[in-house]
Amino acid sequence: MERLLCACVFLVIALPAIESVRDSSCPRICASHGYGDPVCGTDAVIYPNICEMKKKTCGKGVKLSADPSLCQRSSGSKCEHKCSSEKDPVCGTDGRTYLNRCMLQVEICRLGIDMSHLGSCNNISAHRENCPVDCKQAPQDGPICGSDGNVYKNTCQMKLITCGQGVVRTNKKYCQTTRHCRESCWRNARPTCGSDGKIYSNVCRMKSKNCGKHVFEVPMAYCQEGQERTRSSLVCPSECPNEPERPTCGSDGQIYKSECELKLLNCGSNKRVSKVDFEKCRNRLQKCLKIKCSNDPDPVCGTDARTYKNQCLLNLATCLKGVQLAHLGNCTGLKEPNPCPDHCTDVGGEPICGSDGNVYRSQCDLKKETCGQLVVQVPAQHCRTTASCNESCDANERQFVCGSDNKIYRSECQMKRDNCGKHIYVVPLKRCLAGFIFRGCQKICPDYYDPVCGTDNMTYSNACFLELENCRSRSLVQMKNMGTCAEPLNEIPKNYLY
């Protein structure tokens, strides 16, 4: 009886410790090239990304907040943060450049502003910026990732093509084909065949060596066809067009559509994979069949060179046989020669979003600029400047914004839709109102909440509203302190660079 009592006491004491150990299964290192959005924890603190949140709150039971308003000053948040000093500038809708996205998130918490675009603010009006005439003598400092989400050969080409749009250089991690340029690759040997017909030591090496190019993984048989066949390569099929579907369990524990597909996807692999009894894969099959997918069309291409109707169906294939995403859009014929146009004259219709993440003026431009890279057209929502082209904007919405083209729009949605394919972003409303003449004490104030206390002991939403009252009272009301009258601030918070 005493032993049983001791055991129960031990369990009661040990349970919190067990929970703590369970919660402490969190990352010790977060990749420096990670580009996750800042997050709000259940402790009402802002973190650079979810990885940093798990790392800094290890064992404390802090999770991702389901309520986004938890980190909003209007809801009583103190806007506390654990931001790093990483230099990755972003521009806010207040026209200020912030050190990184996390620092901007602190101001979003305080003021309710938003992100205007990636990269530093270009405070020169976009239509007045100096643009190059040609780039023949320009330094080859590319590839460059622009704030419009497109990749350019160099800075000069970026300024030439986007003249008047205020596009600036941003971190390479924000563009699809430059995302892995500086990635440190582990020395794991998993031979990979690239869509350029070359064999690489692994996928990471393939992407880092093709910085700025659309090169993706394809079945190894494609690369071996151009080489001298060896005895091992003779048994590797190059395709399985007429093979009947017979679910096959491999010795690697994965499920293939047929024995032919098993050989195709493991061709050139270091480990030998063979057909085994299907019962060994029964548990995997039951687990994967829990994935339920819709038939919504948004095609993606897998590393098995097969087109899947949507990302969910590819996730099912990943679960069954380890197939990964090669690129968005339909797969193309790898061996078919595709003629490239020398010049494009017909540039009509809406811009086109390519599977390399870049936007092109027309289908002809896409083929010309990406000759030999097997880039295909994908739905507009997958590219940054075309994401809102087909969006339905609320006709009754009256959230007026000033665009970088110095025009006032009914809403940000309308601004982006009306400028499909262009890099037009939100700038402070005062830029668009600079030409208007206000009489007397009439003035349009921004709606963000950055309270100030007046000498009349009244709290005003921001300094602009205090200035209005100062004008009406003929300089009788001045600013007493920053913050509310109940909770004054000793100093003005400054999370921006300039």
TrEMBL record:
Keywords: Disulfide bond, Protease inhibitor, Serine protease inhibitor, Signal. InterPro entries: Kazal_dom, Kazal_dom_sf, Prot_Inhib_GrowthFact_Antg. This is Serine protease inhibitor dipetalogastin. Residues 20-72, 73-123, 125-177, 230-281, 282-333, 334-385, 435-487 form the Kazal-like domain. Residues 1-20 form the signal peptide. GO terms for molecular function: serine-type endopeptidase inhibitor activity. PROSITE patterns: KAZAL_2. Gene3D superfamilies: 3.30.60.30. The gene is LOC108564709. The lineage of its organism: Eukaryota, Metazoa, Ecdysozoa, Arthropoda, Hexapoda.
